[in-house]
Amino acid sequence: MTQQQNVLQPPLPLQVDIVSDVVCPWCIIGYKQLLKALASMPEPFDVTVRWHPFELNPQMPAAGQDLREHLAQKYGTTSAQSQGARARLSALGESLGFTFDYFDGMRMVNTFQAHQLLHWAAEQGKQTPLKLALFEAFFSQREDVSDAALLAEVAGRAGLDCAEANAVLSDERYARAVREEQQYWLEQDVHAVPAFYFQQRYMVPGAQEPEAFVRLLQKIQSRAGA
Fold first, then answer.
1. Angle, nearest 10°, between helix axes 210-225 and 25-40?
2. Which of 21, 91, 151, 179 has the fewest CB atoms within 10 Å, i.e. is most exposed?
3. For residue 3, what pLDDT is reported?
4. What residues contact residue 213 under an 8 Å CB cut-off, 6+ apart?
5. In whole angstroms, what is the distance from residue 110 CA to residue 63 CA?
């Protein structure tokens, strides 16, 4: 193949399926690490990202729970450990261009409605903008992503119709589909997030460093070339 032919070669299609929750800090970290890896590749990909639902706390009541109390109860995390983890996440987020604004009184909330809205957003071609807007709402703007009115407002920020977003949440037209999809991923042994699936073939667990993603991306390119 000549150099000119190589230049004209279309980008390799890359499908990335990400199982995640909008209140999972490592999910936005992992996505940002993936973007960093993609940006470093000499040969670009034609990337399609699909987000899939996972609830870190499916039994969380409507009122939510104090975050520190929640972490202590669920993981046995001490106050000092929690504070240290927040500091590390904030520093890592800043290095990747994302703001974690942890604060006293921050609450963990239920995200089932958020996932219903994301399911609808996928049909509108706005799933990633909404997902990122939800991450920012919860972690950067101190907003309650379990509140239906707030969710509709965030949908508007992502370029979606607020009135239709309200209707989606009111009639719960996607509730069953989201439950079924959640169950599917549990049956695939996804019990922690983020979980990345590339080309519906290669699974990468957790928020890996960019270098780990790069190695897999190189492998995908190599096998496509072969």
1. 50
2. 91
3. 46
4. 33, 34, 37, 38, 204
5. 9
Count of C-beta atoms within a 10 Å radius of residue 54: 25
Overall size of the chain counted in residues:
226
pTM above 0.90, yes or no: yes
**Distance (Å, rounded) from C-alpha 107 to C-alpha 111?**
12
pLDDT at 8: 65
CB atoms within 10 A of CB 222: 9
Among the listed residues 117, 104, 108, the one whose alpha carbon sits nearest the alpha carbon of residue 150 = 117
Please spell the DSSP secondary structure of 138-183, one letter per residue.
IIIS---TT-HHHHHHHHHHTT--HHHHHHHHHHTTTHHHHHHHHH
| CB hemisphere CA count around 169 (13 angstroms) | 23
Angstrom distance (rounded) from CA 115 to CA 89: 24
**pLDDT tens, position by position, 80-114:** 898 899 999 999 999 999 999 999 899 999 999 99
pLDDT at residue number 2: 44
3-225: CATH number: 3.40.30.10
pLDDT at residue 73 greater than cutoff 60: yes
Looking only at the bridges linking them, the beta strands covering 107-108 and 45-53 are: unpaired
Q: Which residue has the tokens 């239920």?
A: 110
The domains of the chain are located at 3-225
